[in-house]
Amino acid sequence: xxxxxxxxxxxxxxxxxxxxxxxxGPMETCMKAxxxxxxxxxxxxxxxxENGKPIYEFDIKIKGGKEVExxxxxxxxxxxxxxMDVSRKDPAFKSKAKISMKEAKKIxxxxxxxEVVTxxxxxxxGSPIYEFDIKTADGKExxxxxxxxxxxxxxxxxxxxxxxxx
Length: 166
What we know:
Layout: H1 2-10, E1 15-16, E2 22-23, H2 27-37, E3 40-50, E4 53-62, E5 67-73, E6 79-86, H3 91-94, H4 101-111, E7 114-124, E8 127-136, E9 141-147, E10 153-164
Antiparallel strand pairs: 1-2, 3-4, 3-10, 4-5, 5-6, 6-7, 7-8, 8-9, 9-10
C-alpha cells in the first residue's frame, strides 16, 4: 500500500484544489518521518487544510493492531501531531469522557450542519476526543474534533483528498 501511495503521489508534484489550496510539499518526506516514529503500515493518506495551512494526514497501523493518525506540515515535512485511535470502550477514553458521543455529535452539527459520515474515538496527548467526518451541504468534507471532556470544538480540517481506507 505504501508503494502505491508513493507512486501515485509522486506523479503529482503540485496538487491544487478549490479555494487555491495547494500541497506542494514533500509527501514522501512526511511519510518517512511518520513511519520512522511509528513503524507500521500506512492505511490511508489525506490532504487537508487546517487553519489555511496544507497538511498531510497518515493513518498508520502499528504493532499490536493499534492505529495512529499522524499530521505533517505539507510545506516543510515537519510532524505536527499524533492521535491514537481507540475503541469507545477503551478504559483510557471511557474513564475521562464526560460528554457522550451523542452530545458531541449534536455540538459538531450545530456548528457544521451536514451528515456525519464517520465517528472516531481518539486520545490526543491522553485526552479523549471524538472526531467526526461531516459532509456539508456544499459537498465539502470536514473533520471536526470535539473534546469528550469539555464538549468544546477543537481542530476542524477540510479534507481535500484521500487515498486508502480511513
